[in-house]
Specification:
By secondary structure, this protein is mainly α. It folds into 3 domains: 186 residues, no CATH class; 188 residues, no CATH class; 78 residues. It is built from 29 helices and no strands. Helix 10 packs antiparallel against helix 11 and helix 11 runs antiparallel to helix 13. The chain is globular, with a radius of gyration of 26 Å.
Length: 640
Protein backbone atom coordinates (compact mmCIF):
# COMPACT_ATOMS: atom_id res chain seq x y z
CA UNK A 1 0.00 0.00 0.00
CA UNK A 2 2.84 2.38 0.89
CA UNK A 3 4.58 1.76 -2.42
CA UNK A 4 1.32 2.32 -4.28
CA UNK A 5 0.69 5.65 -2.52
CA UNK A 6 4.29 6.70 -2.95
CA UNK A 7 4.09 5.93 -6.65
CA UNK A 8 0.88 7.97 -6.94
CA UNK A 9 2.51 10.92 -5.21
CA UNK A 10 5.55 10.70 -7.48
CA UNK A 11 3.23 10.62 -10.50
CA UNK A 12 1.48 13.76 -9.28
CA UNK A 13 4.85 15.45 -8.76
CA UNK A 14 5.90 14.55 -12.30
CA UNK A 15 2.66 15.90 -13.75
CA UNK A 16 3.03 19.08 -11.68
CA UNK A 17 6.62 19.46 -12.90
CA UNK A 18 5.44 19.07 -16.49
CA UNK A 19 2.87 21.83 -15.98
CA UNK A 20 5.54 24.12 -14.55
CA UNK A 21 7.89 23.42 -17.44
CA UNK A 22 5.16 24.25 -19.96
CA UNK A 23 4.38 27.46 -18.09
CA UNK A 24 8.09 28.34 -17.98
CA UNK A 25 8.65 27.76 -21.70
CA UNK A 26 5.65 29.84 -22.67
CA UNK A 27 6.61 32.51 -20.12
CA UNK A 28 10.06 32.98 -21.60
CA UNK A 29 8.52 33.21 -25.07
CA UNK A 30 5.96 35.67 -23.68
CA UNK A 31 8.76 37.81 -22.21
CA UNK A 32 10.71 37.63 -25.48
CA UNK A 33 7.70 38.79 -27.49
CA UNK A 34 7.13 41.71 -25.10
CA UNK A 35 10.77 42.80 -25.33
CA UNK A 36 10.88 42.42 -29.11
CA UNK A 37 7.57 44.18 -29.75
CA UNK A 38 8.49 47.04 -27.41
CA UNK A 39 11.84 47.60 -29.04
CA UNK A 40 10.85 46.98 -32.66
CA UNK A 41 7.02 46.86 -32.78
CA UNK A 42 6.61 44.55 -35.77
CA UNK A 43 3.38 42.75 -34.78
CA UNK A 44 -0.13 43.33 -36.11
CA UNK A 45 -2.33 44.72 -33.28
CA UNK A 46 -5.12 42.14 -33.64
CA UNK A 47 -2.79 39.13 -33.61
CA UNK A 48 -0.68 40.70 -30.88
CA UNK A 49 -3.61 41.22 -28.51
CA UNK A 50 -5.09 37.80 -29.26
CA UNK A 51 -1.75 36.00 -28.93
CA UNK A 52 -0.87 37.72 -25.64
CA UNK A 53 -4.31 36.85 -24.29
CA UNK A 54 -4.01 33.14 -25.18
CA UNK A 55 -0.45 32.95 -23.83
CA UNK A 56 -1.54 34.59 -20.57
CA UNK A 57 -4.36 32.10 -20.07
CA UNK A 58 -2.12 29.14 -20.88
CA UNK A 59 0.56 30.29 -18.40
CA UNK A 60 -1.96 30.94 -15.63
CA UNK A 61 -3.76 27.63 -16.15
CA UNK A 62 -0.50 25.68 -16.09
CA UNK A 63 0.66 27.45 -12.93
CA UNK A 64 -2.66 26.98 -11.15
CA UNK A 65 -2.91 23.38 -12.38
CA UNK A 66 0.53 22.58 -10.97
CA UNK A 67 -0.39 24.04 -7.60
CA UNK A 68 -3.70 22.18 -7.55
CA UNK A 69 -2.05 18.84 -8.29
CA UNK A 70 0.37 19.23 -5.38
CA UNK A 71 -2.29 20.45 -2.95
CA UNK A 72 -5.03 18.04 -3.91
CA UNK A 73 -3.22 14.85 -4.82
CA UNK A 74 -5.73 12.85 -2.78
CA UNK A 75 -8.76 14.57 -4.32
CA UNK A 76 -10.93 12.24 -6.38
CA UNK A 77 -12.22 15.22 -8.39
CA UNK A 78 -8.74 16.24 -9.52
CA UNK A 79 -9.26 14.75 -12.96
CA UNK A 80 -12.46 16.73 -13.46
CA UNK A 81 -10.69 19.91 -12.40
CA UNK A 82 -7.96 19.37 -14.96
CA UNK A 83 -10.56 18.60 -17.64
CA UNK A 84 -12.29 21.86 -16.78
CA UNK A 85 -8.96 23.68 -17.23
CA UNK A 86 -8.61 22.09 -20.68
CA UNK A 87 -12.14 23.26 -21.47
CA UNK A 88 -11.25 26.81 -20.38
CA UNK A 89 -8.17 26.80 -22.59
CA UNK A 90 -10.17 25.49 -25.56
CA UNK A 91 -12.87 28.12 -24.94
CA UNK A 92 -10.23 30.85 -24.84
CA UNK A 93 -8.67 29.68 -28.11
CA UNK A 94 -12.06 29.47 -29.85
CA UNK A 95 -13.29 32.87 -28.60
CA UNK A 96 -10.00 34.58 -29.48
CA UNK A 97 -9.99 32.98 -32.94
CA UNK A 98 -13.50 34.35 -33.57
CA UNK A 99 -12.33 37.78 -32.37
CA UNK A 100 -9.48 37.82 -34.89
CA UNK A 101 -11.68 36.54 -37.73
CA UNK A 102 -14.41 39.11 -37.09
CA UNK A 103 -11.90 41.95 -36.75
CA UNK A 104 -10.39 41.05 -40.13
CA UNK A 105 -13.82 41.23 -41.72
CA UNK A 106 -14.70 44.48 -39.92
CA UNK A 107 -11.54 46.10 -41.26
CA UNK A 108 -12.91 45.90 -44.81
CA UNK A 109 -16.70 45.65 -44.52
CA UNK A 110 -19.77 45.94 -42.28
CA UNK A 111 -20.47 42.93 -40.12
CA UNK A 112 -23.51 41.63 -38.22
CA UNK A 113 -22.86 39.65 -35.06
CA UNK A 114 -23.78 35.96 -35.53
CA UNK A 115 -24.95 33.41 -32.99
CA UNK A 116 -21.52 31.75 -33.04
CA UNK A 117 -19.99 35.12 -32.11
CA UNK A 118 -22.34 35.44 -29.12
CA UNK A 119 -21.28 31.96 -27.99
CA UNK A 120 -17.62 32.95 -28.42
CA UNK A 121 -18.17 36.11 -26.36
CA UNK A 122 -19.92 34.27 -23.52
CA UNK A 123 -17.22 31.58 -23.43
CA UNK A 124 -14.50 34.24 -23.41
CA UNK A 125 -16.16 36.12 -20.57
CA UNK A 126 -16.55 32.87 -18.62
CA UNK A 127 -12.81 32.19 -18.94
CA UNK A 128 -11.91 35.69 -17.78
CA UNK A 129 -14.15 35.83 -14.73
CA UNK A 130 -13.16 32.32 -13.63
CA UNK A 131 -9.42 33.00 -13.89
CA UNK A 132 -9.94 36.38 -12.23
CA UNK A 133 -11.51 34.56 -9.29
CA UNK A 134 -8.61 32.14 -9.06
CA UNK A 135 -5.78 34.65 -9.48
CA UNK A 136 -7.09 37.93 -8.03
CA UNK A 137 -9.71 36.81 -5.54
CA UNK A 138 -13.37 37.57 -5.04
CA UNK A 139 -13.35 41.38 -5.15
CA UNK A 140 -12.40 41.89 -8.78
CA UNK A 141 -14.35 38.74 -9.73
CA UNK A 142 -17.51 40.14 -8.13
CA UNK A 143 -17.10 43.50 -9.87
CA UNK A 144 -16.72 41.79 -13.26
CA UNK A 145 -19.74 39.51 -12.70
CA UNK A 146 -21.90 42.41 -11.52
CA UNK A 147 -20.91 44.40 -14.62
CA UNK A 148 -22.02 41.61 -16.97
CA UNK A 149 -25.28 41.13 -15.07
CA UNK A 150 -25.85 44.90 -15.12
CA UNK A 151 -25.49 45.34 -18.88
CA UNK A 152 -27.90 42.45 -19.54
CA UNK A 153 -30.58 43.17 -16.96
CA UNK A 154 -29.94 46.74 -15.76
CA UNK A 155 -33.09 47.94 -17.54
CA UNK A 156 -35.08 46.42 -14.68
CA UNK A 157 -33.27 48.38 -11.96
CA UNK A 158 -34.72 51.53 -10.38
CA UNK A 159 -33.59 55.17 -10.57
CA UNK A 160 -30.17 56.23 -11.75
CA UNK A 161 -29.04 52.60 -12.26
CA UNK A 162 -31.61 51.92 -15.00
CA UNK A 163 -30.46 51.85 -18.62
CA UNK A 164 -32.27 51.34 -21.92
CA UNK A 165 -31.42 47.63 -22.21
CA UNK A 166 -28.91 45.71 -24.33
CA UNK A 167 -29.20 42.42 -26.21
CA UNK A 168 -26.70 39.57 -26.32
CA UNK A 169 -25.64 40.83 -29.76
CA UNK A 170 -24.84 44.24 -28.28
CA UNK A 171 -23.06 42.56 -25.37
CA UNK A 172 -20.79 40.69 -27.80
CA UNK A 173 -20.23 43.77 -29.96
CA UNK A 174 -19.26 45.99 -27.03
CA UNK A 175 -17.38 43.60 -24.75
CA UNK A 176 -15.64 41.26 -27.20
CA UNK A 177 -15.54 42.44 -30.82
CA UNK A 178 -14.36 45.97 -30.18
CA UNK A 179 -10.86 47.43 -30.36
CA UNK A 180 -11.71 50.57 -28.38
CA UNK A 181 -13.49 49.09 -25.38
CA UNK A 182 -14.12 45.62 -24.05
CA UNK A 183 -11.63 42.83 -23.40
CA UNK A 184 -9.36 43.71 -26.35
CA UNK A 185 -9.82 47.48 -26.00
CA UNK A 186 -7.53 50.45 -25.61
CA UNK A 187 -6.43 49.69 -22.03
CA UNK A 188 -5.28 46.22 -23.10
CA UNK A 189 -3.32 47.87 -25.89
CA UNK A 190 -1.69 50.32 -23.46
CA UNK A 191 -0.73 47.57 -21.02
CA UNK A 192 0.75 45.35 -23.75
CA UNK A 193 2.72 48.11 -25.44
CA UNK A 194 3.78 50.21 -22.43
CA UNK A 195 3.35 48.47 -19.09
CA UNK A 196 4.56 44.89 -19.61
CA UNK A 197 8.14 45.94 -20.35
CA UNK A 198 8.30 47.60 -16.93
CA UNK A 199 6.79 44.51 -15.28
CA UNK A 200 9.65 42.47 -16.75
CA UNK A 201 12.13 45.15 -15.71
CA UNK A 202 10.97 45.11 -12.07
CA UNK A 203 11.16 41.32 -11.75
CA UNK A 204 14.50 41.12 -13.54
CA UNK A 205 15.94 43.81 -11.27
CA UNK A 206 15.40 41.54 -8.27
CA UNK A 207 16.89 38.57 -10.13
CA UNK A 208 20.16 40.41 -10.73
CA UNK A 209 20.75 40.91 -7.00
CA UNK A 210 20.36 44.68 -7.23
CA UNK A 211 17.70 44.61 -4.51
CA UNK A 212 20.12 43.36 -1.84
CA UNK A 213 22.67 46.01 -2.73
CA UNK A 214 19.96 48.67 -2.59
CA UNK A 215 18.96 47.49 0.89
CA UNK A 216 22.55 47.64 2.04
CA UNK A 217 22.90 51.25 0.91
CA UNK A 218 19.60 52.14 2.57
CA UNK A 219 20.74 50.70 5.89
CA UNK A 220 24.11 52.42 5.62
CA UNK A 221 22.55 55.83 4.92
CA UNK A 222 20.07 55.58 7.79
CA UNK A 223 22.03 53.76 10.48
CA UNK A 224 22.68 56.97 12.44
CA UNK A 225 19.00 57.90 12.58
CA UNK A 226 16.71 56.97 15.44
CA UNK A 227 14.54 54.89 13.15
CA UNK A 228 17.50 53.00 11.73
CA UNK A 229 16.11 49.95 9.90
CA UNK A 230 12.61 51.49 9.77
CA UNK A 231 14.02 54.50 7.92
CA UNK A 232 16.04 52.11 5.76
CA UNK A 233 12.85 50.23 4.87
CA UNK A 234 11.22 53.49 3.80
CA UNK A 235 14.21 54.47 1.67
CA UNK A 236 14.67 51.04 0.08
CA UNK A 237 10.98 50.37 -0.46
CA UNK A 238 10.44 53.79 -2.03
CA UNK A 239 13.32 53.35 -4.44
CA UNK A 240 12.64 49.70 -5.22
CA UNK A 241 8.89 50.29 -5.39
CA UNK A 242 9.17 52.87 -8.13
CA UNK A 243 10.92 50.24 -10.25
CA UNK A 244 8.82 47.18 -9.39
CA UNK A 245 5.46 48.96 -9.36
CA UNK A 246 3.93 46.27 -7.14
CA UNK A 247 3.44 46.82 -3.39
CA UNK A 248 3.05 43.08 -2.78
CA UNK A 249 6.29 42.25 -4.64
CA UNK A 250 7.97 45.12 -2.84
CA UNK A 251 6.88 43.91 0.60
CA UNK A 252 7.97 40.35 -0.15
CA UNK A 253 11.24 41.50 -1.74
CA UNK A 254 12.39 43.94 0.96
CA UNK A 255 10.11 43.25 3.92
CA UNK A 256 11.35 39.74 4.59
CA UNK A 257 14.71 41.33 5.37
CA UNK A 258 13.75 44.70 6.89
CA UNK A 259 10.79 43.76 9.10
CA UNK A 260 12.70 41.37 11.43
CA UNK A 261 15.47 43.95 11.85
CA UNK A 262 12.95 46.72 12.60
CA UNK A 263 11.46 44.49 15.32
CA UNK A 264 14.91 43.87 16.81
CA UNK A 265 15.40 47.62 17.24
CA UNK A 266 12.43 47.64 19.63
CA UNK A 267 9.49 48.55 17.41
CA UNK A 268 6.25 46.58 17.81
CA UNK A 269 5.35 43.90 15.22
CA UNK A 270 2.37 45.96 14.00
CA UNK A 271 4.50 49.06 13.61
CA UNK A 272 7.26 47.14 11.82
CA UNK A 273 4.82 45.62 9.33
CA UNK A 274 2.92 48.90 8.98
CA UNK A 275 6.07 50.83 8.04
CA UNK A 276 6.98 48.31 5.35
CA UNK A 277 3.43 48.16 3.96
CA UNK A 278 3.10 51.95 3.83
CA UNK A 279 6.52 52.52 2.30
CA UNK A 280 6.03 49.77 -0.28
CA UNK A 281 2.70 51.22 -1.40
CA UNK A 282 4.30 54.66 -1.65
CA UNK A 283 6.77 53.39 -4.25
CA UNK A 284 3.99 53.59 -6.82
CA UNK A 285 3.65 57.36 -6.39
CA UNK A 286 7.40 57.99 -6.52
CA UNK A 287 8.91 59.06 -9.89
CA UNK A 288 10.54 58.29 -12.24
CA UNK A 289 8.65 55.03 -13.02
CA UNK A 290 5.77 54.87 -10.49
CA UNK A 291 4.56 51.44 -11.60
CA UNK A 292 2.02 50.17 -14.10
CA UNK A 293 -0.90 52.40 -13.12
CA UNK A 294 1.01 55.62 -13.80
CA UNK A 295 2.08 54.35 -17.22
CA UNK A 296 -1.54 53.60 -18.07
CA UNK A 297 -2.56 56.99 -16.66
CA UNK A 298 -0.30 58.88 -19.04
CA UNK A 299 -1.87 57.25 -22.09
CA UNK A 300 -5.40 57.24 -20.76
CA UNK A 301 -5.36 60.93 -19.79
CA UNK A 302 -3.29 62.03 -22.78
CA UNK A 303 -0.61 63.49 -20.50
CA UNK A 304 3.09 63.30 -21.52
CA UNK A 305 4.80 60.91 -19.14
CA UNK A 306 7.66 63.32 -18.37
CA UNK A 307 5.02 65.93 -17.53
CA UNK A 308 3.28 63.44 -15.23
CA UNK A 309 6.33 62.36 -13.24
CA UNK A 310 7.39 65.99 -12.80
CA UNK A 311 3.95 66.76 -11.37
CA UNK A 312 4.07 63.73 -9.07
CA UNK A 313 7.51 64.48 -7.62
CA UNK A 314 6.77 66.94 -4.79
CA UNK A 315 3.63 65.17 -3.47
CA UNK A 316 5.61 61.92 -3.34
CA UNK A 317 8.50 63.57 -1.50
CA UNK A 318 6.09 65.02 1.05
CA UNK A 319 4.60 61.58 1.54
CA UNK A 320 7.98 60.04 2.28
CA UNK A 321 8.94 62.95 4.53
CA UNK A 322 5.79 62.19 6.54
CA UNK A 323 6.85 58.54 6.84
CA UNK A 324 10.34 59.51 8.04
CA UNK A 325 8.81 61.90 10.58
CA UNK A 326 6.30 59.29 11.76
CA UNK A 327 9.09 56.76 12.40
CA UNK A 328 11.21 59.37 14.19
CA UNK A 329 8.33 60.33 16.48
CA UNK A 330 7.62 56.67 17.27
CA UNK A 331 11.32 56.02 17.97
CA UNK A 332 11.41 58.93 20.44
CA UNK A 333 8.19 57.66 22.01
CA UNK A 334 9.75 54.20 22.51
CA UNK A 335 13.10 55.63 23.66
CA UNK A 336 15.00 54.06 20.77
CA UNK A 337 18.42 55.61 20.18
CA UNK A 338 20.63 55.58 17.05
CA UNK A 339 23.16 52.76 16.81
CA UNK A 340 26.83 53.66 17.03
CA UNK A 341 28.36 50.69 15.18
CA UNK A 342 29.67 52.42 12.06
CA UNK A 343 30.91 49.11 10.65
CA UNK A 344 27.40 47.69 10.38
CA UNK A 345 26.22 47.27 6.80
CA UNK A 346 29.63 48.27 5.50
CA UNK A 347 29.69 49.03 1.78
CA UNK A 348 32.22 46.82 0.00
CA UNK A 349 33.92 47.62 -3.33
CA UNK A 350 31.65 45.03 -4.98
CA UNK A 351 28.58 46.80 -3.55
CA UNK A 352 29.72 50.00 -5.22
CA UNK A 353 30.00 48.14 -8.51
CA UNK A 354 26.62 46.46 -8.00
CA UNK A 355 25.02 49.86 -7.39
CA UNK A 356 25.41 50.52 -11.10
CA UNK A 357 22.74 47.85 -11.67
CA UNK A 358 19.99 50.04 -10.24
CA UNK A 359 21.44 53.51 -10.91
CA UNK A 360 22.16 53.02 -14.62
CA UNK A 361 18.66 51.72 -15.58
CA UNK A 362 16.94 54.57 -13.72
CA UNK A 363 19.19 57.10 -15.44
CA UNK A 364 18.45 55.47 -18.79
CA UNK A 365 14.71 55.93 -18.18
CA UNK A 366 15.15 59.61 -17.31
CA UNK A 367 17.51 60.27 -20.23
CA UNK A 368 15.20 58.44 -22.62
CA UNK A 369 12.17 60.48 -21.53
CA UNK A 370 14.07 63.78 -21.67
CA UNK A 371 15.38 62.87 -25.12
CA UNK A 372 11.79 62.51 -26.33
CA UNK A 373 11.42 58.73 -26.46
CA UNK A 374 8.16 57.11 -25.44
CA UNK A 375 7.85 55.57 -21.93
CA UNK A 376 7.81 52.11 -23.55
CA UNK A 377 11.07 52.76 -25.39
CA UNK A 378 12.60 54.24 -22.22
CA UNK A 379 11.62 51.01 -20.44
CA UNK A 380 13.19 48.98 -23.24
CA UNK A 381 16.44 50.94 -22.85
CA UNK A 382 16.34 50.38 -19.08
CA UNK A 383 15.86 46.63 -19.52
CA UNK A 384 18.75 46.37 -21.99
CA UNK A 385 21.01 48.44 -19.71
CA UNK A 386 20.03 46.26 -16.74
CA UNK A 387 20.83 43.05 -18.63
CA UNK A 388 24.25 44.41 -19.59
CA UNK A 389 25.04 45.78 -16.12
CA UNK A 390 23.87 42.60 -14.39
CA UNK A 391 27.10 40.86 -15.41
CA UNK A 392 28.97 43.23 -13.10
CA UNK A 393 27.64 41.02 -10.30
CA UNK A 394 29.87 37.94 -9.90
CA UNK A 395 26.84 35.92 -8.80
CA UNK A 396 25.23 36.54 -12.20
CA UNK A 397 28.45 35.62 -13.99
CA UNK A 398 28.54 32.33 -12.06
CA UNK A 399 24.90 31.60 -12.81
CA UNK A 400 23.69 33.49 -15.91
CA UNK A 401 20.62 31.25 -15.95
CA UNK A 402 19.19 33.36 -13.10
CA UNK A 403 18.40 36.01 -15.73
CA UNK A 404 16.37 33.45 -17.68
CA UNK A 405 14.56 32.51 -14.48
CA UNK A 406 13.90 36.19 -13.91
CA UNK A 407 12.38 36.56 -17.37
CA UNK A 408 10.25 33.46 -16.74
CA UNK A 409 9.01 34.91 -13.48
CA UNK A 410 8.36 38.22 -15.23
CA UNK A 411 6.35 36.40 -17.89
CA UNK A 412 4.17 34.80 -15.21
CA UNK A 413 3.62 38.16 -13.49
CA UNK A 414 2.74 39.76 -16.82
CA UNK A 415 0.29 36.95 -17.62
CA UNK A 416 -1.48 37.38 -14.29
CA UNK A 417 -1.62 41.13 -14.86
CA UNK A 418 -3.27 40.56 -18.25
CA UNK A 419 -6.04 38.53 -16.56
CA UNK A 420 -6.84 41.48 -14.29
CA UNK A 421 -6.71 43.88 -17.24
CA UNK A 422 -9.19 41.72 -19.17
CA UNK A 423 -11.55 41.82 -16.17
CA UNK A 424 -11.18 45.59 -15.93
CA UNK A 425 -11.88 45.94 -19.65
CA UNK A 426 -15.23 44.21 -19.03
CA UNK A 427 -16.05 46.91 -16.47
CA UNK A 428 -14.81 49.64 -18.83
CA UNK A 429 -16.97 48.32 -21.66
CA UNK A 430 -20.06 48.13 -19.45
CA UNK A 431 -19.59 51.61 -17.97
CA UNK A 432 -18.98 53.15 -21.38
CA UNK A 433 -21.89 51.35 -23.04
CA UNK A 434 -24.46 52.03 -20.30
CA UNK A 435 -23.25 55.54 -19.40
CA UNK A 436 -23.24 54.65 -15.70
CA UNK A 437 -20.06 56.64 -15.06
CA UNK A 438 -21.65 59.90 -16.24
CA UNK A 439 -24.80 59.19 -14.22
CA UNK A 440 -22.69 58.67 -11.12
CA UNK A 441 -20.82 61.90 -11.88
CA UNK A 442 -24.07 63.81 -11.84
CA UNK A 443 -25.05 62.15 -8.57
CA UNK A 444 -21.79 63.15 -6.88
CA UNK A 445 -22.18 66.70 -8.19
CA UNK A 446 -25.67 66.91 -6.67
CA UNK A 447 -24.45 65.52 -3.33
CA UNK A 448 -21.62 68.03 -3.26
CA UNK A 449 -24.00 70.82 -4.32
CA UNK A 450 -21.09 72.61 -5.99
CA UNK A 451 -19.02 72.39 -2.78
CA UNK A 452 -15.56 71.24 -3.83
CA UNK A 453 -14.50 69.88 -0.45
CA UNK A 454 -17.67 67.86 0.12
CA UNK A 455 -17.55 66.51 -3.43
CA UNK A 456 -13.90 65.52 -3.07
CA UNK A 457 -14.70 63.87 0.25
CA UNK A 458 -17.48 61.84 -1.38
CA UNK A 459 -15.15 60.97 -4.26
CA UNK A 460 -12.39 59.93 -1.84
CA UNK A 461 -14.76 57.65 0.11
CA UNK A 462 -16.09 56.10 -3.08
CA UNK A 463 -12.57 55.59 -4.40
CA UNK A 464 -11.40 53.84 -1.24
CA UNK A 465 -14.42 51.53 -1.30
CA UNK A 466 -14.09 50.77 -5.01
CA UNK A 467 -10.38 50.06 -4.69
CA UNK A 468 -10.51 47.74 -1.67
CA UNK A 469 -9.12 44.29 -2.28
CA UNK A 470 -7.63 45.09 -5.67
CA UNK A 471 -4.11 45.64 -6.98
CA UNK A 472 -3.34 49.26 -7.84
CA UNK A 473 -3.85 49.10 -11.60
CA UNK A 474 -7.37 47.59 -11.52
CA UNK A 475 -8.24 49.82 -8.55
CA UNK A 476 -7.09 52.97 -10.36
CA UNK A 477 -8.93 52.07 -13.57
CA UNK A 478 -12.22 51.36 -11.83
CA UNK A 479 -11.96 54.50 -9.70
CA UNK A 480 -11.05 56.81 -12.57
CA UNK A 481 -13.79 55.28 -14.70
CA UNK A 482 -16.51 55.88 -12.11
CA UNK A 483 -15.20 58.79 -10.02
CA UNK A 484 -13.12 60.63 -12.63
CA UNK A 485 -16.00 62.25 -14.55
CA UNK A 486 -17.60 63.33 -11.26
CA UNK A 487 -14.46 65.10 -10.04
CA UNK A 488 -13.79 66.67 -13.43
CA UNK A 489 -17.23 68.34 -13.31
CA UNK A 490 -15.93 70.31 -10.33
CA UNK A 491 -13.58 72.25 -12.58
CA UNK A 492 -10.34 70.42 -11.83
CA UNK A 493 -7.82 69.72 -14.58
CA UNK A 494 -7.36 66.27 -16.12
CA UNK A 495 -3.95 65.91 -14.44
CA UNK A 496 -5.30 66.74 -10.98
CA UNK A 497 -8.30 64.41 -11.42
CA UNK A 498 -6.18 61.42 -12.43
CA UNK A 499 -3.57 61.99 -9.72
CA UNK A 500 -6.33 62.43 -7.13
CA UNK A 501 -7.97 59.08 -7.87
CA UNK A 502 -4.57 57.44 -8.36
CA UNK A 503 -3.53 58.36 -4.81
CA UNK A 504 -6.66 56.79 -3.36
CA UNK A 505 -6.24 53.75 -5.58
CA UNK A 506 -2.86 53.29 -3.89
CA UNK A 507 -4.26 54.15 -0.45
CA UNK A 508 -7.04 51.56 -0.81
CA UNK A 509 -4.47 48.79 -0.39
CA UNK A 510 -3.90 50.07 3.18
CA UNK A 511 -7.55 50.68 4.09
CA UNK A 512 -9.30 48.21 6.41
CA UNK A 513 -11.02 45.83 6.32
CA UNK A 514 -9.53 44.65 2.99
CA UNK A 515 -5.96 45.96 3.26
CA UNK A 516 -3.91 43.86 0.83
CA UNK A 517 -0.54 45.38 1.75
CA UNK A 518 -1.14 44.93 5.48
CA UNK A 519 -2.22 41.31 5.03
CA UNK A 520 1.01 40.58 3.13
CA UNK A 521 3.30 42.36 5.61
CA UNK A 522 1.65 41.18 8.85
CA UNK A 523 2.63 37.46 8.67
CA UNK A 524 6.28 38.41 8.13
CA UNK A 525 6.21 40.38 11.40
CA UNK A 526 3.98 37.94 13.26
CA UNK A 527 1.45 40.76 13.64
CA UNK A 528 -2.32 41.06 13.53
CA UNK A 529 -3.32 42.12 9.96
CA UNK A 530 -6.13 44.47 11.04
CA UNK A 531 -3.97 46.19 13.67
CA UNK A 532 -1.22 46.42 11.06
CA UNK A 533 -3.65 48.09 8.65
CA UNK A 534 -4.65 50.68 11.25
CA UNK A 535 -0.99 51.28 12.08
CA UNK A 536 -0.23 51.74 8.37
CA UNK A 537 -3.08 54.25 8.16
CA UNK A 538 -1.61 56.17 11.06
CA UNK A 539 1.89 56.21 9.62
CA UNK A 540 0.71 56.99 6.07
CA UNK A 541 -2.01 59.51 6.96
CA UNK A 542 -0.38 62.08 4.66
CA UNK A 543 -1.43 59.98 1.68
CA UNK A 544 -5.04 60.94 2.44
CA UNK A 545 -4.26 64.65 2.82
CA UNK A 546 -1.85 65.35 -0.04
CA UNK A 547 -4.45 64.82 -2.83
CA UNK A 548 -6.66 67.50 -1.25
CA UNK A 549 -3.62 69.79 -1.07
CA UNK A 550 -2.84 69.61 -4.80
CA UNK A 551 -6.54 69.68 -5.71
CA UNK A 552 -6.84 73.09 -4.01
CA UNK A 553 -3.28 74.19 -4.78
CA UNK A 554 -2.31 72.78 -8.21
CA UNK A 555 0.86 74.89 -8.06
CA UNK A 556 2.19 72.06 -5.86
CA UNK A 557 2.40 69.95 -9.02
CA UNK A 558 4.91 72.42 -10.54
CA UNK A 559 3.48 72.15 -14.06
CA UNK A 560 0.05 73.76 -13.61
CA UNK A 561 -0.81 77.33 -12.54
CA UNK A 562 2.61 77.78 -10.98
CA UNK A 563 2.92 80.87 -8.80
CA UNK A 564 6.02 81.36 -6.67
CA UNK A 565 4.35 83.00 -3.65
CA UNK A 566 1.51 80.48 -3.61
CA UNK A 567 4.05 77.66 -4.03
CA UNK A 568 6.16 78.81 -1.06
CA UNK A 569 3.02 79.25 1.04
CA UNK A 570 1.64 75.77 0.41
CA UNK A 571 5.07 74.14 0.86
CA UNK A 572 5.40 75.73 4.31
CA UNK A 573 1.81 74.98 5.33
CA UNK A 574 1.88 71.39 4.10
CA UNK A 575 5.10 70.81 6.06
CA UNK A 576 3.46 72.17 9.21
CA UNK A 577 0.35 70.05 8.55
CA UNK A 578 2.38 66.85 8.24
CA UNK A 579 4.23 67.67 11.47
CA UNK A 580 0.96 68.30 13.33
CA UNK A 581 -0.72 65.13 12.07
CA UNK A 582 2.31 62.88 12.69
CA UNK A 583 2.70 64.04 16.30
CA UNK A 584 -1.05 64.10 17.00
CA UNK A 585 -1.70 60.57 15.72
CA UNK A 586 1.34 59.29 17.64
CA UNK A 587 0.20 61.13 20.78
CA UNK A 588 3.79 62.23 21.28
CA UNK A 589 6.16 65.07 20.49
CA UNK A 590 8.98 65.60 22.96
CA UNK A 591 6.59 64.36 25.62
CA UNK A 592 3.30 62.53 25.61
CA UNK A 593 0.38 64.63 24.42
CA UNK A 594 -2.91 64.79 26.26
CA UNK A 595 -6.29 64.67 24.51
CA UNK A 596 -6.61 68.47 24.34
CA UNK A 597 -3.18 68.86 22.72
CA UNK A 598 -4.00 66.17 20.15
CA UNK A 599 -7.33 67.82 19.30
CA UNK A 600 -5.72 71.26 18.95
CA UNK A 601 -3.05 69.91 16.62
CA UNK A 602 -5.60 68.15 14.40
CA UNK A 603 -7.72 71.32 14.18
CA UNK A 604 -4.65 73.41 13.32
CA UNK A 605 -3.60 70.82 10.73
CA UNK A 606 -6.89 71.20 8.91
CA UNK A 607 -6.83 74.99 9.26
CA UNK A 608 -3.33 75.28 7.75
CA UNK A 609 -4.64 73.94 4.43
CA UNK A 610 -7.74 76.14 4.21
CA UNK A 611 -7.56 78.60 1.32
CA UNK A 612 -8.67 81.84 3.10
CA UNK A 613 -5.65 83.55 4.64
CA UNK A 614 -7.70 84.56 7.66
CA UNK A 615 -7.78 80.85 8.57
CA UNK A 616 -4.46 79.43 7.40
CA UNK A 617 -2.44 82.50 8.47
CA UNK A 618 -3.21 82.35 12.22
CA UNK A 619 -3.12 78.53 12.14
CA UNK A 620 0.40 78.57 10.68
CA UNK A 621 1.57 81.12 13.26
CA UNK A 622 0.12 79.10 16.15
CA UNK A 623 1.76 75.94 14.79
CA UNK A 624 5.16 77.64 14.64
CA UNK A 625 4.69 78.85 18.21
CA UNK A 626 3.85 75.29 19.31
CA UNK A 627 7.02 73.99 17.65
CA UNK A 628 9.19 76.68 19.27
CA UNK A 629 7.70 76.09 22.73
CA UNK A 630 7.83 72.30 22.45
CA UNK A 631 11.43 72.27 21.39
CA UNK A 632 12.38 75.19 23.67
CA UNK A 633 13.71 77.24 20.80
CA UNK A 634 13.85 80.93 21.68
CA UNK A 635 14.46 83.22 18.69
CA UNK A 636 15.33 86.13 20.94
CA UNK A 637 17.62 86.07 23.98
CA UNK A 638 16.31 87.65 27.14
CA UNK A 639 17.94 90.98 27.96
CA UNK A 640 19.56 91.80 31.32
Amino acid sequence: MYNFLNGAINTHEKISSTYLKLASYVSICFAGVVIYSTGFGLFYPIEQRGGIYIASIFIVLCKLGSERILKKNQNRFLGLSLLFDIFLLGAAVFSTYRFMVVQRVMADDLYDILDIDIVACLLGLLVIVELTRRVWGRTLFTVAICSIVYILWGQDLPGVLRHSGFSFEQLAENLWFNLNKGVFGSITNIVINVVLIFVLFGVLLESTGAGQTLLKYAFRLTQKTRGGPAHAAILASGFFGTMSGSPVANIVGTGTFTIPIIKKRGFSPEFSAGVEATASCGGQIMPPIMGAAALVMADLAGIPYLFLITAALLPALFYYISLFLGVTVEARKQGIEPITDLEAYKITPQDKINAIMFVAPILSVIIGLVAGFSPAMAGFFALVVLLICSFLNPEVRKDPYRLIRGLMSGGVNAAELMISVAAIEIVVGVMDTTGLGLKFAGLVENIGDQQLFLSLLVAMTGALILGMGMPTLPAYLIIVLIMGPAIKLLGLSTLVVHLFVFYYGVASSLTPPVAIAAYVAAPIAGANPILTAFMALRIGAAKFIIPFAFAYYPTLLLVENFDLLSFISIILRLTLTIYLISTALSGYDRNRLNFASIAIRLILAGSCLLTPIEFHGPASVFTIIIILRTWQIYPFKKQG
